């Protein structure tokens, strides 16, 4: 098995862990429910997108670039939550709309996007280390 195949397999396993955890944050009822729903979900969302993109762009340079692009893209989506056209509002209040676009702007989300992107970077780096015992070049 090539190192890229091994990394992709490890990435898929990671997605099978992160994805249910992310959905769990939206249905969790218990202590710290609000924080888990809003902010732990943000962290896992960043990691999820880092893993999805890394699955398709499995190179060492991508490990650094992916979290930056995921943070940037999700920050733009967060800012766009200030824009409230009816067609977006209708979608935002569906389950998939809440999961992809969110429903309201919150400055604190940027902190958790940053944390999630950093943890995503660490996660990708660990996947690379476990899947590739060679040099750190593409």
UniProtKB/TrEMBL annotation:
Keyword annotations of the record: Membrane, Transmembrane, Transmembrane helix
Top-level taxonomic group: Bacteria
InterPro entries per UniProt: DUF2809 (IPR021257)
Transmembrane domains' residue ranges: 12-31, 43-59, 66-83, 110-128
Transferase keyword on record: no
Coiled coil residues, start to end: none
Entry keyword Transmembrane helix: yes
Pfam families (alphabetical): DUF2809
The protein's name: DUF2809 domain-containing protein
């Amino acid at each position: 098995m090539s190192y890229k195949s091994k990394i992709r397999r490890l990435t898929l396993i990671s997605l099978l862990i992160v994805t249910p955890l992310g959905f769990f944050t939206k249905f969790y009822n218990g202590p710290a429910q609000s924080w888990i729903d809003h902010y732990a979900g943000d962290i896992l969302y960043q990691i999820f997108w880092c893993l999805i993109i890394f699955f398709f762009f499995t190179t060492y340079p991508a490990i650094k670039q992916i979290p930056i692009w995921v943070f940037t893209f999700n920050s733009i989506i967060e800012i766009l939550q200030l824009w409230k056209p009816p067609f977006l509002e209708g979608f935002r209040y569906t389950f998939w709309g809440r999961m992809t676009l969110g429903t309201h702007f919150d400055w604190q989300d940027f902190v958790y996007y940053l944390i999630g992107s950093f943890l995503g970077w660490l996660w990708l780096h660990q996947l690379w280390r476990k899947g590739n015992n060679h040099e750190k070049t593409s």
